[in-house]
Design brief:
The chain is α+β, with helices and mostly antiparallel strands. Helices cover about 45% and strands about 15% of the residues. The chain contains 28 helices and 23 strands. Strands 11, 12, 13, 16, 17, 18, 19, 20 and 21 form a nine-stranded mixed beta sheet that branches. The longest helix has about 35 residues. It is rod-shaped. It starts with a helix and ends in a 10-residue tail after the last helix.
Length: about 800
């Protein structure tokens, strides 16, 4: 059961219906809280202007040539860029110089001049500090005096938080695979609310640091797992936009931090207000279900079916039976433990040099994106101007950045957008470095442009990694194959792939399955005709492989189920053919020229060939092929494909067995229909086949009826039986076998043969908007579908095996 098969669920219940919209916005809302907690420290750890607190009550204050009465009045004069001091006189007459981190007592108490050249004694700020409260009434810096020699404690707050982010991603990413997505979302959301509130009530620096560290772990856990959660609920048609735009809610969280910081200037009130954003999700999280993908991976099929049924009900679509859609019954009853699968670890990211190189590049992009993203955001308050507006703009600019990513990658592809974003981000970093310090407006504009660029890269790398690694790592487990077409060619190809390339998961996709395919109409006798554009030795090889395959079935216990049987008869000619012994003569059984005595049965013919070949009843053989495909782990999906690119997101390789459908799917104008009409009659006394050398008139006895044919109308798409053609067929066949005048229960059948000068067996790489789709073409058999189907299917499977190896996968060979 490959991951590609799970995508089929959304074709039935909807890719982004009302249920997915509810799930998406419920979970995305909580992303606002992640953005809040990631950047809340921007204002909590701000360093206000400060100076040492004097050791007593102040009677007079002097700052340069300005005399003041209150220390709180000096902050408008106090410089931010250089060291300076304040002279104060205490009520006891002592004169002190106060700097940011030290205070000095003058020995000469009579001098209150600002400049002093006499002796003075230095002391540390034992009585604490006085802080500028014009912007913030209280921060964690002022709460625990994290300035001067304790400044590094304040600077440790955000790195500790980011270490928690790293740890949370590792821990909860692992737990989400072990215990499920929903328990992780529940626990991390509750943790964000609890730890967020707890931070505001911490009584000392160390408990504050620890609580923030725990908050970082759960916030990171939610952020990582929610991306997986929503992508597993959304179909491929909406997944790209949804997965990118979920980052917009993180950006909204950044803007909420700016707005809350502007309104509330006490850090613990600010923290409590921000933490309340988590509460709505905590109250509603019980409503979100586990993802059906995870439930299926754990063998909890009944629970997965309940979720899918609920999804279909909300979306007002018909539900789907997972047991039928995903062939779950192949491995036991619903609810059984799934078969053991190989576990992968970090070393598998370096499986070979190619994957290892890409892994290192992806890691470098992640490092660059994270570094730039948080540096632009955290440094926005230091650009000058209004720090609240700066941070708000840093969040607001991300939203158009994500829209740019969604539009851009559909036009030029993921890689090109990522390259452009990273290079642009680097260029804007260089521009910021050369902007003079006083031009803060230009610094803000350049920083916004840089944040736009790096935000685009940061948002895209989530999706890019999710799409890139499955393509590289999945071949070590399963390569997803889609076979388009469910006639004898498509089903036999799917079965050969399952046998020759066992590491593939195969899905057969068609809008028609037996008994509604062209193969169900075919006569099904193994007498090949020549393809002008194909070498004779290759045609003989395909025919021999097909004959041997069906001959083995005819000699097995499955002969009755498949209705494959030997039949003897004659091929007769009105004139001696140029090739009296065809290329396939030594493949069929007992090939010989007809005797004169045998030719007396056909007085209008002068030459004939007698042999024994095989007859294959499509109405029985095709269901048998379907059964074998399912037993090999394959899936049959009824779906009309208008464009092969529809399959790009769900499958790694597409095998095109669409016959006449290839005119539309791949624009092949060389294939055209040849209308064939035949009759199915009851004539059980007919035991030998008779075939005119032209192949136009034939009598083929089968298990349950006799097939009479036929007709050839090139370029005719009409599927309605023509009564005049039926009379002509019956007349011609009765001329060969007069006893057919007594046939009864005559049924008229029409089919369109997919005719081409040569069978197309070819690999092709399709490219569109920077994306690549590997396709193996296998179609164009015309009236020789049953005669060649197994041989050409084997060759198509070999071509596919080569394509899988091109993906970087060592494929073990197996004998069919």
């Amino acid at each position: 059961m490959g991951s590609g098969n799970l995508e089929l669920i959304f074709d039935r219940v909807g890719h982004f219906g009302r249920y997915q919209i509810f799930i998406y916005f419920t979970c995305a809302f909580q992303n606002i809280s992640c953005g809040i907690h990631y950047l809340a420290s921007v204002f909590m750890t701000m360093f206000p202007k400060h100076t040492c607190r004097p050791p007593g009550n102040v009677s007079q204050i002097l700052f340069h040539n300005t005399s003041l009465w209150r220390l709180d009045d000096i902050w408008t004069l106090f410089p931010t860029g250089r060291e300076d001091y304040v002279v104060v006189q205490l009520e006891d007459g002592e004169v002190w110089e106060l700097t940011r981190c030290y205070r000095f007592r003058r020995d000469n108490k009579s001098s209150l001049n600002y400049d002093y050249n006499g002796h003075k004694s230095g002391f540390s700020c034992l009585d604490g500090f006085i802080y500028d409260k014009s912007k913030w009434e209280n921060t964690v810096v002022t709460q625990w005096d994290l300035v001067c020699n304790r400044e590094w404690f304040a600077k440790l707050i955000q790195p500790t938080f980011m270490f928690g982010v790293l740890l949370g991603a590792l821990v909860f990413g692992y737990l989400s695979d072990r215990v499920g997505r929903r328990p992780v979302l529940w626990s991390t959301s509750i943790g964000m609310h609890v730890f967020g509130i707890a931070v505001a009530f911490t009584s000392d620096y160390y408990s504050f640091l620890l609580t923030r560290f725990l908050l970082a772990i759960v916030a990171s856990g939610y952020l990582v797992v929610v991306f997986v959660y929503v992508t597993e609920f959304i179909g491929m048609k909406a997944r790209t936009w949804a997965s990118i735009q979920i980052h917009s809610f993180f950006a909204i969280g950044t803007m909420v931090v700016a707005l809350t910081g502007y309104l509330f200037r006490t850090w613990w009130i600010y923290q409590i207000i921000l933490s309340t954003v988590t509460l709505p999700f905590v109250l509603c999280c019980w409503m979100i279900p586990e993802t059906p993908f995870w439930l299926l991976s754990e063998g909890r099929y009944e629970e997965a079916q309940i979720v899918v049924d609920k999804m279909a009900k909300w979306n007002r679509t018909s539900t789907c039976e997972l047991s039928a859609l995903l062939s779950l019954d192949l491995y036991g009853a619903v609810g059984d433990k799934p078969s053991e699968v190989k576990k992968y670890n970090l070393l598998d990211l370096f499986y070979d040099w190619k994957i290892g190189t890409r892994t290192l590049i992806v890691w470098l992009v992640w490092f660059t994106g994270c570094l730039g993203f948080y540096c632009f955001s955290l440094n926005s308050v230091n650009l000058g101007g209004n720090e609240y507006l700066n941070l708000f703009l840093m969040g607001a600019v991300e939203i158009p950045a994500y829209i740019f990513v969604c539009v851009g990658m559909d036009i030029v592809g993921r890689r090109n957008v990522l390259m452009f974003s990273l290079i642009s981000g680097a260029l804007f970093c260089g521009v910021i470095m050369v902007i003079p310090k006083g031009y803060y407006i230009w610094s803000v504009v350049a920083t916004m442009a840089g944040k736009f660029a790096i935000g685009s890269a940061f948002g895209l790398i989530y999706l890019y990694t999710a799409e890139l690694y499955p393509t590289m790592i999945r071949p070590m487990n399963t390569v997803r194959i889609a076979v388009v077409g469910a006639g004898v060619v498509g089903l036999s190809t799917a079965l050969c792939i399952s046998k020759l390339v066992p590491q593939c998961s195969v899905t057969v996709i068609s809008d028609k399955f037996t008994p509604d395919t062209t193969s169900d109409v075919a006569a099904g006798i193994l007498i090949p005709h020549a393809y002008p554009d194909t070498p004779i030795h290759k045609q003989k090889q395909w025919f021999r492989e097909t004959f041997d395959h069906l001959f083995a079935i005819a000699n097995s216990a499955e002969a009755g189920e498949t209705c494959v049987h030997l039949v003897s008869g004659w091929q007769i000619f009105e004139s001696v053919p140029s090739e009296e012994v065809p290329f396939w003569a030594d493949v069929v059984l007992g090939f010989r020229k007809m005797t004169e005595a045998e030719l007396k049965k056909f007085p209008q013919h002068v030459f004939g060939q007698a042999f024994t070949t095989l007859k294959c009843e499509g109405a029985a053989y095709l269901p048998w092929l379907e059964k074998r495909v399912k037993e090999s782990g394959g899936v049959l999906l009824t779906r009309r494909i208008e464009d092969l690119w529809e399959l790009h997101s769900s499958f790694d390789i597409v095998v095109n067995c669409s016959g006449l459908g290839s005119r539309q799917l791949v624009g092949d104008s060389k294939i055209f229909p040849v209308r064939g009409q035949l009759l199915k009659v009851q004539a059980p006394w007919v035991k030998h086949f008779i075939r005119d050398g032209s192949g136009l008139t034939y009598v083929y006895p089968g298990v349950s009826n006799v097939t009479l044919g036929g007709s050839r109308q090139k370029g005719d798409w009409n599927l309605v039986p023509d009564a005049e053609i039926s009379r002509d067929i019956l007349s011609r066949c009765c001329a060969l076998e007069p006893s057919l005048y007594g046939a009864c229960d005559i049924k008229e059948i029409v089919g369109l043969r997919p005719v081409r000068a040569g069978i197309r067996l070819q690999k092709e790489i399709l490219a569109q908007d920077g994306r690549r789709l590997t396709v193996v073409h296998h179609y164009g058999h015309g009236s020789g579908g049953f005669s060649m189907h197994w041989g050409t299917a084997l060759e198509a499977a070999k071509l596919l095996s080569e394509c899988v190896q091109d993906l970087g996968t060592p494929i073990p060979t197996s004998k069919l």
